[in-house]
Design brief:
29% of the residues lie in helices and 31% in strands. It is α+β, with helices and mostly antiparallel strands and 171 residues long. The protein has one domain: Thiol Ester Dehydrase, Chain A. The protein binds coenzyme A.
């Protein structure tokens, strides 16, 4: 199976924030942003694997900055590391200044998707080869994020999370 680069799975979705998608402060409702990120991430996972993909976990979401009504929001996703059947997807969310057009990073998130066959059983995906410094940084940290996610889900014993433990021992 031929390896792929993060740019081959990049998906970019741009959309407005409409009144029905806001909270009482007139900012984008968190659940709406989660759904937009899930859609972009799912397209990335599909582009990388060319298989049916399902969301296995949402590993991290940082709502750092409120996104006001009327904003132009761009959700940009790509696979940051591929394991056997699972893929970590990194998502960056940008908002665009109406007058200058300058983009500001508003939020980010990390999702895990799994490629499955028609019966829902996990199947192998291509390896990922990072190219840029940022892609390499995200790739390197992905294994400990996977281990943390598995420990929190009760699918891995903390003692087996070697990469995660090393983070605290080396600190
Ligand atoms: C995701 C799913 C396919 C995993 O099935 P499973 O029986 O746990 O399969 P496995 O234990 O073989 O795990 C498959 C892969 O998922 C990874 N995985 C499973 N749960 C995970 C979690 N919480 N965090 C990170 N990775 C996880 C495993 O590490 C494994 O990765 P690898 O093959 O790259 O090593 C299964 O739980 C599922 O279908 N869930 C529902 C998905 C869905 O409907 N999502 C939409 C939300 S409504």
């Amino acid at each position: 199976m031929q390896s792929k680069t993060p740019s081959e799975s990049r998906s970019i979705m741009t959309d407005l924030v409409l009144p029905s998608e806001t909270n009482p402060l007139n900012n984008l409702f968190g659940g709406e942003l989660l759904a937009r990120m899930d859609r972009a991430a799912s397209i990335s996972a599909r582009r990388h694997s060319r298989r049916i993909v399902v969301t296995a976990s949402v590993n991290h979401v940082a709502f750092n900055r409120a996104i006001p009504l009327g904003s132009v929001v761009t959700v940009e996703a790509n696979v940051s590391r591929a394991f056997k059947s699972s893929m970590e997807i990194f998502i960056d969310v940008w908002i665009e200044d109406r007058e200058s057009g300058r983009r500001t990073k508003a939020n980010e998130a990390i999702y895990t998707f799994v490629a499955v066959d028609d019966t829902g059983a996990p199947v192998k995906v291509p390896a990922l080869v990072p190219e840029t410094d940022l892609e390499k940084e995200r790739f390197d940290a992905a294994l400990r994020r996977k281990q943390l996610s598995l420990v929190l889900a009760g699918k891995m014993q903390p003692k087996d999370a070697t990469e995660l433990k090393a983070l605290f021992i080396d600190a």
